[in-house]
């Protein structure tokens, strides 16, 4: 199963200047729990925003730079090639950024989205989730607290099956 996993604000903002614009420790925990021991697919800029590769995950980096290398990572030139590198019988996660989410939307089976209940200025955005294509199957609201400046909701979507005409 191909799952897109992201945290996006109410205006679909993902981040600015290749950085998140909020800090939600519970979202980081959820991301780690869901993606550990799986393949994660990302764009080069997302990969370069990490201080080091994320532990216990196979990194697949999509870039147009044909000579790009990253130690211990798989480097590919397209979303199709990235998906092809993932084991067919295991879950794989698309982790960003905005351009990669747009490219991956037709291939995704599931979306794990953390909606941050605030509006942010951003330069990267999550694509619109069209209700005719996706079904919300779980929604778990979390109120802000001393470690979380904003309310947020964990949402899970699955792709609707197209009925033949």
UniProtKB/TrEMBL annotation:
The protein's enzyme class: oxidoreductase
GO MF annotation terms: kinase activity
InterPro entries with a match to the protein in the record: DHFR, DHFR-like_dom_sf, DHFR_dom
Keywords per UniProt: Kinase, NADP, One-carbon metabolism, Oxidoreductase, Transferase
Pathway: Cofactor biosynthesis; tetrahydrofolate biosynthesis; 5,6,7,8-tetrahydrofolate from 7,8-dihydrofolate: step 1/1
Tagged with keyword Transferase: yes
EC number: 1.5.1.3
Source superkingdom: Bacteria
Reactions mediated catalytically: (6S)-5,6,7,8-tetrahydrofolate + NADP(+) = 7,8-dihydrofolate + NADPH + H(+)
Domain DHFR: start-end pairs: 1-159
Keyword Kinase listed: yes
Pfam family, one: DHFR_1
Protein family: Belongs to the dihydrofolate reductase family.
Function: Key enzyme in folate metabolism. Catalyzes an essential reaction for de novo glycine and purine synthesis, and for DNA precursor synthesis.
Protein name per its UniProtKB record: Dihydrofolate reductase
Lineage: Bacteria, Pseudomonadati, Bacteroidota, Flavobacteriia, Flavobacteriales
